[in-house]
Amino acid sequence: MDESFDELELEIERYELREPTRFRFETDRRRFMQATGTGLMLAVAIKPRRVEAQRGTARRDEYLNERFFLAQDGTITVFTSKVEVGQGSRTQLTQAAAEELRLNVDQISLVMADTQLCPNDGGTAGSRTTPSTVPRIRAAAATLRETLINHVAKQTLSQPEQIQYAGGIFRSQDGQEMTLGQLASDQSLVDALKRTSLAEGSTVIPVADWQVLGTPVPKLTSRAVVTGAMQYPSDTVLPGMWYGKVVRPVSYGASLTSIDLDAARDMTDVVVVRDGDFIGCVAATSYEAALARDAIAASAAWNRPNHPASVDLFTHLRRNITSPGTPRKQGDFLYAWTGATKRFDASYKISYIQHAPMEPRAAVAQWNGDLVTVWTGTQQPDRVRSELIGAFQLPAESVRVIVPDTGGGFGGKHTGECAVEAARLAKAAGRPVSLRWTREEEFTWAYFRPAGVIDIRAALDSSGNLIGWEFTNYNSGGSAIESPYRIPTTVTRTAQCEYPLRQGSYRALASTANVFARESAMDELAAMAQSDPLEFRLKHLDEGRLKDVLRAAARNFDWSGAVSSRLPNRGVGIACGTEKGSFVAACAEVEVTQGEPRVLRICQAYECGAIQNPANLRLQVEGALVQGLGGALYEAVEFSKGQITTDNFSTYRVPRLRDVPELEIVLLNRTDLPSVGGSETPIIAVAPAIANAIAHASGVRSRSLPLKLA
Q1: What would the pLDDT profile of 90-100 be if each residue is shown by its tens digit?
Q2: Which among 229, 237, 449, 623 has most CB atoms closer than 10 A?
Q3: Beta bridge partners of 473
Q4: Is residue 246 classed as helix, strand or coil in its secondary structure?
Q5: Measured between alpha carbons, how far is 609 from 681 in angstroms, rounded to an integer?
Q6: What are the tens digits of pLDDT across the range 53-89?
């Protein structure tokens, strides 16, 4: 469960890197001489507080001066490649540094996701910030704290253990005082920070002594968000900036046969770009750029290949298997299957769904001679930088990516196509260019959560025990595919298929599909065994964390009372699962009226080790529940003849306020266990709990997402 950084990156990239390189521009290029870093400090960037900073990586020695900057006002700036996309990482990482430096959160400032300034902590994905980056920053901050104390001890002719330190003030035994602000001007300390490696780390403060971590610190940007003062990537403005639009194909896989650019070129103050298959326009306003784009698009002729429709999606996946996958086996399933008292055989289907972030893709690009800087919204700054390097064949030192706090990602902003497009338009225009994808572009040309088909066969003995389990996932992925239940013979496999739409990471990756199928099947098996769904699960679980959250959810929901006292047309369902090292269980109550389900309440128990910010964790669980509600009941990408037909919120249904049921969240704080991420796993039990409740209420079992009774 504790995946390494490398293993998780490979799982995240699994879908995205199977498609060909999206950009390789054909214009003449030349390799550029290495440029100085200071030349990239432009316009709306951060203040260039430490121009001597070098890029680090997550997997090499780094030095204190790469991670921290001490200011003369007594604050400390922390540098990290992680991004803030609404999940609260800015606040959490600030808390981590403040804890080890024994400062208040307002004495810490964070510079996030600037590839020129920040050490590379990896992308923001896979719930890795908590188990990976927080410990890294805590260890670095603890090293800085010890380094500062040792420096003050030397300056005051004291022993380090004689130095009292709190709140940025150091006191020696003889009464001498020094502040962080004073130390910031000490050149000998600045030099020491450059020499002090973080390779060995330092002893961090134990959970029992936490003063900042473990407390409900509000999100540091809350006021700016609610007052509209927050500046997102789409708000970035540079002097002399123009706006860009891109001509898109008329359908998936369409190839251009002819086009006339003259109508747009004849427009005043319009720059037209054609570079291979890339065609775009730049103008002083987005409206004028759109007019030029539309004039070009009207002249274009396309060759449209055959493309499957969403009504044929699951048949297409089954018929186009590119790799059957290597089965992982335990015991002899065939023996269990043939000797079973009762057998279960079913298929589950999962539709493509959109990430639907509040902010569609956006980027502003500016060239300064041979150097390009792009401000964009992405969860993977270094990957976007690599895409820019590859698209323009530039040396690494010539590309800088800066990521302002971004309006949502949910795994949907790992790629950098908007940044590359903006850079190409800016290069042609000779000025900064802003490119903002429309909602239609986001819903059509971004990637989706993979669709999938899941086949399950299971065997029961005469006592209602699960003795065999076979689980095959076609296309949607392998995360959380292994059953947590005690079953003597199992077979699991992940088959890859030729997929009709772009697909990639999504909140909790394939766990939403695999847990939906498994937990729906567990309810059906419980019925075959004439057992209560809760008792059937408990019977097949060993004692431990998953069993604990299952009991907690059932207890707070009053499972037995809800089952025995349910009203007509109402039903209850339960589901549980584990992913990313955390554990979740959910109970749902549903009412079905004239074939339409309505979720009345959800009680979810969640455990992710020691809780670092209970307020933010609760918000993350709430958000996951609402997002899971959408995938369970409403969301599905529909397409026909190579075109997305659900290309806006008017046709693509997401949960609304009136859809949100009563939510009860139970957080189990395991201070005896390491903290793991809490942004993804809370989504995985929502859909199966609702599916099981609908079946209980209506007697009709839906094995497809979104759930349909007809």
Answers
A1: 999 999 999 99
A2: 449
A3: 454, 494
A4: strand
A5: 13
A6: 333 333 457 899 999 999 999 999 999 999 999 999 9
| DSSP assignments along 166-222, one per residue | ETTEEE-TTS-EEEHHHHHT-HHHHHHHHH-B-SS--PPPPGGG-SSTTS-PPPTTH
Domain range for 187 is: 61-227
> Which of 196, 227, 258 is at the close of a domain?
227
- DSSP secondary structure, 442-508, as one string: HHHHS-BBPPEEEEEEEEE-TTS-EEEEEEEEESS--TT-S--S--SSEEEEEEEE--SS-B---TT
Check whether 11 has a pLDDT greater than 60: no
Alpha helices in 202-311 (DSSP H): 222-227, 262-265, 286-299
Looking at 200, 227, 254, which one is the last position of a domain? 227
Reference 451, options 15, 8, 10; nearest CA is: 15
Helix (H) or strand (E) holding 425: helix 417-429
Instruction: Read off the tokens for 407.
Output: 């309006």
- pLDDT tens digits, one per residue of 504-514: 999 999 999 99
The verdict on 542 and 492 lying in the same domain is: yes
Alpha helices in 251-360 (DSSP H): 262-265, 286-299, 313-319, 333-338
| Residue 197 covered by a domain | yes
| DSSP H or E run through 139 | helix 134-155
- Which CATH number goes with the domain that contains 396? 3.30.365.10
Q: Are 390 and 399 in contact (CB under 8 A)?
A: no
Other Cβ atoms within 10 Å of 319 Cβ, number: 11
Over residues 519-534, the pLDDT tens digits come to: 999 999 999 999 999 9
* Tokens (6 digits) for 133: 């980056």
Indicate the average pLDDT of the chain.
92
pTM of the complete model: 0.92
Q: Please indicate, yes or no, whether residues 429 and 576 belong to a single structural domain of this protein.
A: no
Residue 329 has pLDDT above 60, yes or no: yes
**For residue 697, what are its two tokens?**
């209420």
Dihedral sign from CA coordinates of 54, 59, 65, 66: positive
